[in-house]
Amino acid sequence: MTYKKRTISIAPMLDWTDRHCRYFHRLISRNTWLYTEMVTTGALLYGDVARHLDFSEEEHPVALQLGGSEPAELAQCAKLGEKWGYDEINLNCGCPSERVQKGAFGACLMKESKLVADCVRAMKDAVSIDVTVKHRIGIDDMHTYDFVRDFIGEIAGAGCQTFIVHARNAILKGLSPKENREIPPLRYDVVYQLKKDFPGLEILLNGGVETAGQVEEHLKHVDGVMIGRAAYHYPWRMAEFDARFYGDGTVPENPSAVVAAMIPYIEKQLALYGEKGLRMHGITRHMLGLVTGMPGARRFRQILSDPARLASGNPAAILMEALAAVRF
């Protein structure tokens, strides 16, 4: 199936953008591209594949982000992703965490562009869907434009057409992942220049983008914008994306429609996976920011976080109580 362009996408965020979060986000925006949390090749090759890859059909368009550095293993996992129905396979070359570095993948791969090219080539040979790369503009003290330009040039030569560029350097030692999202300065001009130098490639900008107005400014220079934590903490901001960036006016009138639509989903998921340990909080935790800034938002969050209420196993009653606390 053909989907609209990746004008807007929501970043892969570990422990956040699971299948329940993505389903919730899809209720707010029909066209925004959604990405899984990073899934390592080891988790798929030696773990519970269904637990990592299962998703709802409503989530399309949805991309699977892989973490790994062995071409053959990545090819095998990409093939699994295509079989499961994902619309894109994305290779993580941007995560700076020490745990990821120990696995020899993530941002440290930017030092090995030929290996990344081999990984991309192997995945593209294995699947018919898009293979994309998410990366930083540099690592540690490698701040020169030539570094990221040559990185992209090498991988584009392997057939990759789409690059998601986090407009910060990754500091591999001394900064936590959170600090890596905040301390290295944002250099949007570098991403803009990449689009000028590679006009035939699809260049998406990531990093520090919070509002539709900011998205609009960046789209004057690049093909698309990926939003991270702002979309998670303020999900209702996505409600204007479809009309503003995709010409699609089919949007929920207010958050109450989204909450109501989550009730049958939660009931179904609890019935299917409750015996495997799924609890209502595993779903409602993604909804806490939906009404941020509206009267009653604090009470809404309290209700959807209350262990005693959530243990009652009555999604409809709990969500309706939370909604009743909000004035739209």
Automatic annotation (TrEMBL):
Record keywords: Flavoprotein, FMN, NADP, Nucleotide-binding, Oxidoreductase, RNA-binding, tRNA processing, tRNA-binding
Entry keyword Lipoprotein: no
Cofactor (UniProt): FMN
Sites where the protein binds FMN: 12-14, 65, 134, 166, 206-208, 228-229
Known catalytic reactions: 5,6-dihydrouridine(20a) in tRNA + NADP(+) = uridine(20a) in tRNA + NADPH + H(+); 5,6-dihydrouridine(20a) in tRNA + NAD(+) = uridine(20a) in tRNA + NADH + H(+); 5,6-dihydrouridine(20) in tRNA + NAD(+) = uridine(20) in tRNA + NADH + H(+); 5,6-dihydrouridine(20) in tRNA + NADP(+) = uridine(20) in tRNA + NADPH + H(+)
Ranges where the DUS-like FMN-binding domain occurs: 10-309
Cleavable signal peptide: none
Site note Interacts with tRNA, residues: 92, 178, 181, 298, 301
InterPro entries found in the cross-reference section: Aldolase_TIM, DUS-like_FMN-bd, DUS_fam, DusA, tRNA_hU_synthase_CS
Class of enzymatic activity (EC top level): oxidoreductase
GO molecular function: flavin adenine dinucleotide binding; FMN binding; tRNA binding; tRNA-dihydrouridine20 synthase activity; tRNA-dihydrouridine20a synthase activity
Active site: 95
Pfam families from the UniProt entry: Dus
PROSITE patterns documented for this protein: UPF0034
Record EC number: 1.3.1.91
Domain of life assignment: Bacteria
Family: Belongs to the Dus family. DusA subfamily. Belongs to the dus family.
Function: Catalyzes the synthesis of 5,6-dihydrouridine (D), a modified base found in the D-loop of most tRNAs, via the reduction of the C5-C6 double bond in target uridines. Specifically modifies U20 and U20a in tRNAs.
Designated name of the protein: tRNA-dihydrouridine(20/20a) synthase
Source organism (scientific name): Oxalobacter paraformigenes
Gene transcribed to yield this protein: dusA
